[in-house]
Amino acid sequence: MKLLIINGPNLNLLGRREPGIYGSRSMEECLRDLRDRYPDIAIEYFQSNHEGAIIDEIHRRGTPGGSCDGIVLNAGAYTHTSLAIADAIAAVDVPVVEVHISNVAARETIRHTSLLTAVCAGVIAGFGLDSYRLAIEALRNRLES
Ligand code: DQA
């Protein structure tokens, strides 16, 4: 099984960015733990601060020939604004799980709206970096059932 984690804007700064909200661990550490825990799953990673690059990656990996079985997507602030990313998710064939490190429902009102949830297989939010592991579990269960 091959899964792709996509992180959106500002998530390249994990570990340094607002540690009170996002924690002090880097995405590199998180990926290392995930790959150790799931040696049977190829976990690939893509990060971009650019909306179009995220859309291109969803297209490239989510369509036949993209050699990817599912996508874990933390679109960062684009979650709340990007109809274009929602359309890209709806356009591809693989399941996409929406992830948030923080509990967006408990934060500012603008973060309560996601344009992505309706086109995703599901959403996991609020468990810190463990949200990525929970999304991988959910995708694996879905793909194996
Ligand atoms: C986030 C929540 C978003 O509202 C925010 O813009 C982010 C990160 C999260 O993982 O909690 O960049 O997606």
Secondary-structure map with pairings?
Layout: E1 2-7, H1 19-22, H2 27-37, E2 42-47, H3 51-62, E3 70-74, H4 83-91, E4 96-100, E5 122-125, H5 130-144
Parallel strand pairs: 1-2, 1-3, 3-4, 4-5
Helix pairs in contact: 3-4
Bound molecules: 1,3,4-trihydroxy-5-OXO-cyclohexanecarboxylic acid (DQA).
Q: What kind of sheet is the major sheet?
A: 5 strands, parallel
N-to-C order of helices and strands: EHHEHEHEEH
Percent of residues in helices: 25-40%
So, CATH architecture?
3-Layer(aba) Sandwich
Strand order of the largest sheet: 2-1-3-4-5
Total strand segments = 5
Rg calculated over all Cα atoms: 14 Å
Instruction: List ligands, each type once.
Output: 1,3,4-trihydroxy-5-OXO-cyclohexanecarboxylic acid
**The CATH topology:** Rossmann fold
**Silhouette:** globular
Give average pLDDT, whole number: 97
Low-confidence stretches at least 5 residues in length (pLDDT < 50)? none
CATH superfamily: Dehydroquinase, class II
Compute the separation of the termini in Å: 13 Å
Sheet/helix structural class: alpha/beta
- How many structurally independent domains? 1
CATH class: Alpha Beta
Number of helices: 5
Q: Explain this structure to me?
A:
The chain contains 5 helices and 5 strands. It has helices at residues 19-22, 27-37, 51-62, 83-91, 130-144; strands spanning 2-7, 42-47, 70-74, 96-100, 122-125. A 5-stranded parallel sheet has the order 2-1-3-4-5, with helices on both faces. Strand 3, helix 4 (83-91) and strand 4 form a beta-alpha-beta unit. Helix 3 packs parallel to helix 4. The structure holds 1,3,4-trihydroxy-5-OXO-cyclohexanecarboxylic acid (DQA).
